[in-house]
Amino acid sequence: MKANRTIGMGRAAWSVLLAVGIGLAAPATAHAQASPKDKAAAEALFLEAKKMMEADQYQDACPKLEESHKQDPAAGTLMYLAHCYEKTKRPARAWATWRAAESMARAAGKAEREKTSREKAEALESTLSSLRINVPADAKLPGLEIKRDGEVVAPASWGEAAPIDQGDHEISVTAPGRKPWKASFKIGAARSKETVEIPVLETEGAAAAPASTADKKPSEPPTAAQDASPASFWTQQKIGFVVGAAGLVGLGAGAYFGLRASSKEKDSNSHCMAENQNWCDETGLALNKQAQDAEKVAIGAFVAGGVLTAAGIVLVLTAPSGQPTSAPKVGLAPRVAPGFGGWVLSGNW
């Protein structure tokens, strides 16, 4: 589905998640031309679904409309399908389908259908519940796959609030060489906001064996070398080298995220309309957001790296001849936030 790249972050994030979070939205980009046989099958399914809807048999009509749209994608079919989802109390799917119909109607130059679909979608937005799937950095294992109700959740939508219908749901997580993990939950009320935290998957077949008391050896008093204070190994000059090295790491991180931002921006352009680069499909929006995030981190990393590098040089050049009487306590940790990224040095010496 195409959307303007300059819209608000909340609307943009949900637009990115239509196909992944709802598992339905039809793209407004060019479809493969349906064969006459497919068109005939789609029309038959559509007419049968309309009769069912007129008889209030919405539960049976929705699958037929889904198949009709699959055979021959059309904005009109999506509009009927969105209405069918509303009647079967699936507002999140209905919202996604109205948005897809709006996009297809716009591409086809059907102004009235576009307006109707947009108004229907906007009317539903305030009633939607949402689910956010958070994946901590240490849980992002190679080959990690997350599914919601059997549908794969793309990495681009991790951490974003996606519309979700009321009822029972399941999150399943797998990764090569790791034990699978599942979580079941229920969305019970409208406008609910739920969050699922993905844990670090356990290694397949690994079991931590408790240490036997027979294997434990009595502690021995430390030798003179072991008892040596860390202070004897630290000087301001060495601290300067550590700080300077951290600065270089920050500069390297800035360069990496700068290249990543450029690459993501380039990739997003291939998912945008050639005549108007501000209009992109869901993949283009996701890639553009990743490019913006990487750019923010790159700027923060460059600034932090420059400051730390300069501080390291100053510490080395102004180091006294003596040594401290106690070991310096130094902490170096990464910090990434909206508009900032880099390393933070803390401690006392």
Kindly describe this structure.
This protein is of the alpha+beta class and 349 residues long. The protein is 46% helix and 18% strand. The protein folds into 3 domains: 125 residues, Serine Threonine Protein Phosphatase 5, Tetratricopeptide repeat; 68 residues, Immunoglobulin-like; 118 residues. The protein is elongated, with a radius of gyration of 28 Å. Helix 1 packs across helix 9, helix 5 packs antiparallel against helix 6 and helix 8 runs antiparallel to helix 9. The strands form 4 sheets. A 4-stranded antiparallel sheet has the order 4-3-6-7, with no helix packed on it. A 3-stranded antiparallel sheet has the order 1-10-9.
CATH superfamily of the largest domain: Tetratricopeptide repeat domain
What is the C-alpha radius of gyration, as a whole number of Å? 28 Å
Average pLDDT number: 75
- The helix tally amounts to 9
Strand content: 15-25%
Distance between the termini: 56 Å
